[in-house]
Amino acid sequence: MALLEDLHRLDEEARRRLAAAGTVDEVDTVERDAVGPSSPVAEARRSLRRVPDEERRRLGRVINEIADGLSAAIAGRRRELAAAEEAARLQAERIDITLPGRAPPLGSLHIVMQVWEEITDIFVALGYTVADGPEAETAFYHFDALNTPETHPSRFESDTLYVDHGDDPIGVLLRAQTSPVQVRYMEQHDPPVYVVSPGRVFRRDTTDATHTPVFHQMEGLAVDRDITFADLKGTLGHFAREFFGPDERVRFLPHFFPFTEPSAEMLVSCFSCGGAGCRTCANTGWIELLGCGVVDPNVFEAVGYDPTEVTGFAFGVGIDRLAMIRHNVPELRFFFDPDLRLLEQYR
Ligand code: DAH
User: For residue 218, what are the β-bridge partners?
Assistant: First the structure.
């Protein structure tokens, strides 16, 4: 029968095309041509209506067998090609996770900031609060309230950097010490006071091995009933042992500061020679660390504290100097050099 021959030829041809198909799209085309709605198979099914009954069942079964066989072959080929396409895509998108990653360079805190945080922590552990103050300060907080006479040389323009601001030409300056934070803090808080204030200070200094126009200090202030010089020595001795190690010895020498009476300088045994005397300590065996003293009653009066009720001690320590000692840095100005090759040596 001519119809069946046509269908078998179609079947053979479709299978040949399937075998030759290289993509899923091509399989779709074969499917449309072979078993789609306007394919010879569909056409044959429609023509069954005109075939006598007994013939129709046999013919119908043959058409179905051919159509089912083709559909299965199409589905199989489509699966094969889809899997191959997927494998090719995965291969193309492959990421080699065994390559070492590119680590971004990690920064670190400048060692002055590390020491800043470390010494602040030593006092926070003793119960001290941390306070802040302005870097542009008024002469009142910086000098007057700190019992500094009109004639004191630190007021001269040769030492202090004044800011041309407002009517009073000597009213505003860049602070040369963190001490004015003492006054600001006491104005805002009633005693007892236990406070430290690390910060940046400015002086009219020419840069050399031990001077830079900007450096860092930490101020400390303790005010309470019955505070004595013994509390000062105990607290600052503890600080030195925490920072330098338990074997470090400290020593107090008389000094002068306008806002403390008596005043002292604290020295620490030389880290470089252990006290025998060397270049670092100018053969004295000791290194100057900080200024300190018992708060002058005039300072309490300036902030409205009653000096017959409370006493206190104060100190100011150079943060950069501590960092130089800790890391054996020979020149202060290294800290302000933006050359990373230099700074990275002092991590
Ligand atoms: N402000 C002083 C300075 O810059 C350091 C200082 C000395 C601070 C004695 C104090 C102190 O609080 O009591 O040299």
Answer: 198, 317
Place of tokens 């006092």: 123
- Say how many Å lie between the CA of residue 180 and the centre of ligand 1: 10
Q: How many whole angstroms from 111 Cα to the centroid of ligand 1?
A: 23
Residue 192: cis peptide before it, omega within 30 degrees of 0: yes
Tell me the CA–centroid distance for residue 265 and ligand 1, in Å: 9
| Residue whose token pair is 């690390």 | 198
Strands 129-130 and 193-202: parallel
Using one digit for the tens of pLDDT, what is the confidence trace for 71-126? 999 999 999 999 999 999 999 999 888 888 888 988 889 999 999 999 999 999 99
Tell me the per-residue pLDDT of 322-333, one tens digit each, with 9 for 90 and over: 998 888 888 888
- What is the distance between the alpha carbons of residues 316 and 75, in angstroms, rounded to a whole number? 87
Quick one: tokens of 10?
């179609």
| Rounded Cα gap, residues 314 and 295, in angstroms | 6
Give the Cα separation of 202 and 30 in Å (integer): 87
Q: Whose CA is nearest to atom 4 of ligand 1?
A: 177
Residues 6+ apart with CB under 8 A from 262: 229, 254, 293, 294
The pTM of the full predicted model, rounded to 2 decimals, is 0.71
Question: Which structure tokens are listed for 203?
Answer: 């002086």
For residue 109, the 8-state DSSP code is -
Check residue 278 and give its pLDDT.
84
Nearest protein Cα to ligand 1, atom 7: 291
pLDDT at 1: 56
